[in-house]
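Dear U.,

For the methods section draft, I wanted the exact inputs and outputs in one place so we can describe them consistently. I've listed the two proteins in the order they'll appear in the manuscript figures. Please don't edit the token lines directly; just add comments below if something needs changing.

First protein:
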Amino acid sequence: MALCIALGLVPPFTLAQDRHYDELITMARAGNSAPALTFFPQQAAHRDLTASEIADWLQIAGWAGDDRQVVATWQRYQQVTLPVRGQQAAARALRNLKQWQPALSVWRSALAAEPANDDLHSGYIMTLADAGQRAEALRLAQQRRQQGDTAQHWLDLAYAQRAAGLRWDALQSSSQAETRYPGLLNVQQNYVSALALNRVSGEALRASGQSQPAAAELRRLQSDALAEQVRIAFSASRSEAERFSVADRALAGYERLLQAWQLQPEAAGDVRRARIDRLGALVARRQMQKAIDEYHQLSAGGAEVPAYARRWVASAYLYLHQPEQAVALYQSVRREGEIGMLTRREQDNLFYAHAEAEQAEEARQQSAEYAAITPYYLRIYGSPVPQPNDRWLSARQMQVQAAVLNDDLPLAQQRAEKLAQTAPANQSLQTDLAGVLLMRGWPRQAEALLKRAESLEPRNQALESQQAQTALALQEWHQADLLADDVLARQPESRSAQRLDRLRNVHRYYQLRINAEHGIDSDSPVSGANDFSLDALLYGPPIEENWRLFSGLAFADSEYREGKALNRSVRGGVEYRARDNWAELELNGQRYGSGTKTGLRLAGWHDLSDRWRVGGSAERLMRNAPLRALRDGVTVDGGSLFARWRQSERREWQATLSPSWFSDGNRRLKWSLAGKERLFTAARYSLDFTPSLSGSSNSKTDGAYYSPSRDLSLVPGVTLDHLLYRHYQTEWRQQVEVGAGRYWQQGQQAGAVTRVSYGQRVRWNDVLDSGVTLSWDKRPYDGVREKNLSVSFDMNYRF
């Protein structure tokens, strides 16, 4: 009865206003904020709003996402003591607008009014973290988590940890919240976000099924999950088959998503990102040309391909032997920051791209820059002990290769030895040094070093690959095959393994050798006029590893004053190649105008060490006997002995002694001493001093052929070798040789000797090595200077 009386005393229009106001609030809670946000400014223009109405206005504007209206309204009524809910709305809007200090001030005011309000504490902690006061935010969050185990406390702690850079700690806190309070939507959303932030993308996508993500967020999670598979496909710890399987799954996933997203205009950005990330899957699957084609399509379509994807494309170009394009892409990545932006592997790739593009100076500069910015130790945050820097070692190894690229092998050896000696337990450094020793022509030293390094990790693939190449140089064919088989079985996609397989396969090919020479203009009593010679020899594939059969033919003719001389011959035999030894036994048939005669030749050599080689030959009916003597019916038996000392690629000397017995009774003894001393070396040039000293004696001087009693020739010269072009296993060189000296003949006046030659040589794909040389020399014979202009050709072809 009293309630009825009280209601009867309330004016009807007041009740109607209250009902209208309640309806506005209800509509705003339902998402229709416009009527309320129109009502409040109208009322404020005609009367003073109550503190409760102002708080409602702030809250509804916040629900509508109009932070600027919230802040403007709060500033208008700053003198009014607002309820906590109004202060909370104002603080949240100030935080959204990144006005950290005013927001913190409002949070503190609200907390002073309601110190037990959990929502206020959460907002204050998150604003502290946003404002950069991360230590204080982390302290308060940890304190609150210790005071009570609630979902919100775990989420606040995760937020503070994430802001402090402790992403894995944040993931652990989010995981704790998800485990303890699995049914809460905000907990599940936070857990998915933490997984995605830590790039645990596959699990984030699986967990998103319970977090009800928006369509755009779901597309992002799907893209992240596939990008994670791309990263796994590049993992060095997996076999090629496993990596290919992961890459195939990623490519199939991209195909499904792209087909679905192509029909959604709002997914254009996600389509572009998926196509960019798919480049990595294509590269991981070794579909290099497809990756390059897709990159060009993206670029042509106006898409900006980020640095990480350009690195993939650069590696694809390098794989396809297009190093110039790889260099351009790696350089574009470098231009976006310092050289250190490239990973260690990418630094190596850029260096080898420079090397394979024959940019020796650029490679040297890169190695020097990389070494200059790479410290020996790294200071790790939180650790008082400095840690060795792996990049420092990589930079020094790159400098070794830079010296090799510039053909400065002594410097490369010096650097490699210093690294190997200071880290004897580092097998990679021992292998690198062995590679330099092998390039210098010291395979036995390399073998011994690799054998010692074998104790560290016997089946290391780089070690086995280097051992196999050393075995090939030492003619240890069986050992090379065993090592190559193991390397290929374990890592068939490795370029070094493929290169090794190529070299041993070429060793098994047929081999054709051709040498030809033609006199263009000559009046020499030795070579005659219009002389021509051809020698062709075909070797079969190896038999029982060390043996090869061969057969061949030769032809030589020339014109002398007394008439034409010629020699035709066919030959066959067997060759033996084993460690430290080489030998050939040949049977030949020769026809030079007086029937066919059978000759025999035995030749061989033995390596005493990396530096010393001795060898010789013995022949019955020498095939290279003077044609003039053969025309006169004089045959020659003979042989030779030689000793070669080779210090390195820069110094070499050989002494030869060649006795021969002519059928007319002449006994000839020839000897020679020839050497090479390197004067200058650069990446594409080398200049050698090539002196030669030779002489002969004949017991009979009245034969039809040239046979001085005694003679001596001293001809110092220089040889310039210039690399015109090189692309992997293809080289094109030119060579210029100039020599000038003196010739002495017993009974004749001494005369000058001049010699000039120019030649070009091509090596192609490990199977062809051929050259053409034009030579001119002038020297005295029996006191008269005679000239000789000739062209020669040689070819070594494997098939």
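Second protein (the one for the lower panel):
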Amino acid sequence: MISKHALKTLEFDKVREQVASYCTSSLGKSQLDLLEPSTDFIEVVRLLDEMDEGLSLLRVRGNVPMGGVFDVRIHAKRAQIGGMLSPAELMEIASTIRASRILRQFFEAVDESEDIQIPYFMERKQALPILTALEHEIIACIDENGTVLDSASTKLRTIRQQLRSQENRVREKLEGYIRGKNASKMLSDSIITLRNDRFVIPVKQEYRGNYGGIIHDQSSSGQTLFIEPDAVVQANNEIRRLKMNEQEEIERILLALSLEVQNSAHDLFNLVQILGEIDVILAKAKYGEANKCTKPGVNEKKHIRLVKARHPLLNIEEAVPNTIEFGIDITAIVITGPNTGGKTVTLKTVGLCTLMAQAGVPIPALDGSEISIFNQIFADIGDEQSIEQSLSTFSSHMVNIVDILSKFDDQSLVLFDELGAGTDPQEGAALAISILDEVHGRGALVMATTHYPELKAYGYNRPGVANASVEFDVESLSPTYKLLIGVPGRSNAFEISKRLGLPEHIIKHAQSFTGTDRHEVESMIASLEVSRKESEKNAEQSTAIRIESESIKEDLSTQLRQLEEQKDKIEQKAKDKARKVVDDAKRQAEEIIEELRRMQKNVQHVIKDHELIDVRKRLEKATPENPVLKKQQQIKVREMTLTKGDEVKVLSYGQKGTLLDKVSNDEWSVQIGILKMKVHESDLEYLKPEKQQQTVVMTHVKGRDTYVKLELDLRGERYEAAILRAEKYIDDAVLSNYHQVSIIHGKGTGALRQGIQQFLKNHSRVKNFRFGEAGEGGHGITVVELK
């Protein structure tokens, strides 16, 4: 457990207050008041992961519904001991239950959407008690204003109906007095009012005897008396009785509801605890979002790396960020130099960021930051002069240091501010060196500030120790608050004095007292500062160039990826187009071949010239053009000289033929079987001559007397007739040597489609069948593959 002194010294309570301001309920604020850093590695990792999950949820969804949550634990405790809860208290309980129900539904919706993963919130969602029944019981009896409803019970409704009826009767009687002929004379005002919960009228003092009854009040002047006439006394008594009955029934209802709360008290305590935990997680995330904080990495290796870290309590626009890293090779840092206001801030930044991370709060640093889990953090910071204990500044510091030396171990982070200050400089410097040696030697991680020049060389002869300083701008006579690790601080007294106008001879005279060694050390430090600035400048330029290079590389990779995707799309588009062209050509060729078969089988039919020409033209139109193949064919045809009578292969059809005549410069008349076709030279391939074969030209073709189409339309057919037609069509298609046909049955109710597909499933010559593609007719057509 981290010491209270360190928490107070490093002002962790102020950070806690800032985080608490982002809570949406008193539950979260009460839990945040108890927030302290954890020293358990697994718990710290979980706390930071929960907070990071909250950050992700806020980034994706913008907000989380947490309205209507109240701290109802005190109500539940009072119900547990038999107390009666008020309507307002019961409504707070119902509102809290309703808020938990809405939150549960919200987490379920986020989890189902899969935008982000929220395992920690889902874990708490599962643990939220379901008290919907209690919520419904309360809102069925009490409205949002805390009024018990008439519908809360049958008896209450009856009482209130009687009460309203009785009040109306009293008002009617009193209105008769008000509207009477002497009313304007005897009454101060024509109104009915209430006194002591009884209906009365305002009567002038001198006419009090005209009405009789009971005087309940009088005006401040005594001129008006508020009288309850005898005629309404009994009616008012009845109203009073009914109101007492009403109050008794209301108390009975509230006690019954309080008993229900008592039975659910344990669940209510759990509900409040979980809602408070969720509010705390979201408050941490909102704080991080508002202050540009990040989730740091966590280790157990005593390694601290803060990238561009700011002090959490300084204004975000004014704080100077610093990168601080130590704990691997360097386990001690000594910040030297004059009191410029930046050393203590650096010390507190390290300590406070570590405390925040161990409490699961995001830290004001950039991504890539990392902190270690320490069992203890000790801090001796600031002027702690104690008047009550009659202790000087030095004594007060030494009391803290003695306490630290008695408690720290090798898993501690120790922070010393102005170590050894407040006493003789020589003795103070010696004490500071000895204390640093002790803490560093026992393995703790230590950071200290000092203005003693003797400690400037402390890090040069001790392994694992580094010097540092806060940069000072002599030109503007002000610190830049930029931490320079590896460079000890140097006194700027001579430079500052010179800039402020101190005569040169006085400065030179003063320098003569500092000694040669001191002057050389100061010069060395100044040179180190110049080298450090140059290195940082070069590093910044290198980083900028690297970032730009990575950006260019990423852009080029993106462009290459887009080109590859575009190439794939173009290739796929070309393949689809080629496939369509080939499919169309095949379909047309099949139609032509089928027609030729029909003509061949029809012995009574004589093939006429115009029919052959028509078939030839259709074959030419069906020929798909391939520019690449065409070019290759043109190259091949140039390598030979075609002559009449040569055997050739028509590439587009894959058929052999004989050259008859050259009809133009680049076209030949080719005999293919019974067909004569005009073919371009680029579509011809020369074949070596084989044995002479006599070519018989058929002029009579036998075939079927009917033409079988590639598709059968059954839309509008009755089921039995459609099956008969489909059976005959499949037989005809098989006889025509068709490999694939289509049956159009439409979508409709689906009965015809199911019947056709059942028939196809049982047919011996059907190899396979499927629904049509989007361009073929979709589910309105079945494509059949024949054996």
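Candidate sentences for the figure legend, describing the second protein: DSSP finds 22 helices and 23 strands in the chain. The radius of gyration is 50 Å.

Thanks,
Y.
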